[in-house]
Amino acid sequence: xxxxxxxxxxxxxxxxxxxxxxxxGLSAWAQxxxxxxxxxxxxxxxxxxxxAPERIQEIYRKVLADWSAGETERAPEELIExxxxxxxxxxxxxxxVLLKAEQAVIHQVGAADLEVLVxxxxxxxxxxxxxxxxxxxxxxLAMIHxxxxxxxxxxxxxxxxxxxxxxxxxxxLLTSLGGLLQQSAQQxxxxxxxxxxxxLDAKNVAAVLGLxxxxxxxxxxxxxxxxxxxxxxxxxxxxxxRLRLALNLKxxxxxxxxAKLLQELTAxxxxxxxxxxxxxxxxxxxxxxxxxxxxxxxxxxxxxxYPNDLRLHVQLAAVLDRRGAPGExxxxxxxxxxxxxxxxxxxxxxxxxxxxDAFAAARTFLDENSRSRLPVxxxxxGAPPAAAGTGVGR
Amino acid sequence: xxxxxxPSSLLPALAAGLLLAAAARGxxxxxxxxxxxxxxVFGATDVRVGVQAGPAIDRVEVYVNGKLAGTAKTPPYHVxxxxxxDNVKREFRAVAYSSTGATGSDTVVTQPVMxxxxxxxxxxxxxxxxxxxxxxxxxxxxEDFQVLDNGAPQEVVTFGRDELPLTAVLLLxxxxxxxxxxxxxxxxxxxxxxxxxxxxxxxxxxxxxDRLLRFTPFTSQKSxxxxxxxxxxxxxxxxxxxxxxxxxxxxxxRQGQRVVVLFSDGADxxxxxPASDVLWKSRAGQALIYWIQLGGKHESFTSSWRDFKANDxxxxxxxxxxxxxxxxxxxxxxxxxxxxxxxxxLKELREQYAVGYYPNNAKGDGKWHKLDVRVKGGVRxxxxxxxxxxx
Lengths: 394, 391
Description:
The structure holds two protein chains of two kinds. By secondary structure, chain A is an all-alpha fold.
């Protein structure tokens, strides 16, 4: 990657240079992604429409003005409409046209106050998030463009500001983007985002956990363990980190430490999405070691706490079968079919996928920081400022 | 060991004489001709009833342990019933109703197999597919089969084909990757299977992903099953091992020919149980597993739980579980072939010979018993390769 967080220049020329760097970075990011927009939106643009650079700038300014006025629903949609209309997957040159036009506007408003970069970056982040949710087939380049804008503006903001606050904001924006990439199974770019986020803020727990999860999925358990121990130095009580550390240690055949961690997690009175999973894995450690009596004990204890968890019923039935109690095992499985559907049943799925709440704190932080700078953006654009209390609201 | 009480050979002749005498008096005279009193019975049993009456007979009802098992309306009166494999005493009762309202009945009590105190005998049912020149051989008799259990010849106690009721679990992968055309094709396939079921057959439908999305009870009512298939949205990951184990366990409590028909790519990401548990269960139980796969090539993957190698091992063990159960893997390349695959499974099940025996070398020690079923006459026989000796 091309991140140079120590890079700082002064004044207008520095911003231009930085934007040129942003452009260079963009070209290296072309990769397949889903996407296709629907029909014409509120701007009345059509896909593939040839717009003059001045017209693109004009529309982009309008989008930014709407965003700064607190139009949190309309502005991202307009940005999607604009970028999808200008950029064509069949012609990489269209992306450069869009980039230059957007750069020109950012240069104008950014020269007035560097802080405007934050709400602009968050707007692009918001547009990317919406595109991902929608699965925009046929507009991969537009999607990559807006994601790259968000990332590069974050890096630029950090580079230009150099303040601790800028590091925190930029780090969270990169973390959130990493989370979105991870959610869409783009593990390598997600890992790069998390690495950049950690470089800006080594105590960014969500980014460290995100990166550890990617290492874990790719069987780099040693790297995962190292990162997870780092999280626990920052937040000793972090449930996710303790659970993942236990399971990675288990994979490394460090059963003793894994069991100790899992026992602590199952004994904790505070319930978590992952507690049934901790019980399951603790019982697995026992049954894998041939200690079926211990496994049975753990699972019976788990069922007392989670009587509606179907998977715990099935797991206990399997243990009982092995222990020569097939009758009770059958009764358990039959009982499992009478249970109401419970969220606990999805614990293993949640562990193996990106949970919606994993990056919620980073996004709230971004939203707050973007909202507080909207008046600055409005002022730079010469537009009316947002009403108090507006935000992305996710 | 096995000392069944044999009735006197005079009994059938005596019974026939009594029936004629009753008919001459204008009464409804009923005798159960088979099974005979004191005889041990297991599995598929043909209850034959002799009736003599002055007036015409409307129907003959057969009860097993007080529960109506079937009705015969025309002579020769007989009802096929699966009494299960428990070694217990059973009461058979036949009641004949004449067109005038007169009734007559008979009761026969069968006895369990006499066993010594130390050995609990369990009937082991083998389902054998036999082919001759690539075609299914359907003309074989009990005498054509020889069962070797760990090399020891066994006495075949029960024998039949297409007589036992079928109990099936249709275990259908309904994870997110199955959305759209795949799910539609699976629905059609499952429906084809259900359409081929007999009234005495039962099925349970289980639509799973990383959770159990929908299931039905065991039922012969196709409308219940079809409604369940139609109204489920594919979602989530895949946990084959957990739900396959659950299905096999549910079949433990059933009788007759038992089968799990699994449709999945087998890429298990979310199970808590390892495939080795499913393998153990398939070896210890008596249910068959048929696994229908779309596209034959397995590609491994990494997950939060396992690396490529470990996931490959999981997949191979699942394949082994299918083979050891006596079932097989059917690979189809096109979605259009899915209906045919489900039909083929049902046809194969119908054409299997059910061969039952009490292992004379059972110890209940959990050890592996290798099975060899030999069939006379240049044919090829396929059944489970063995079983783990758990009582």
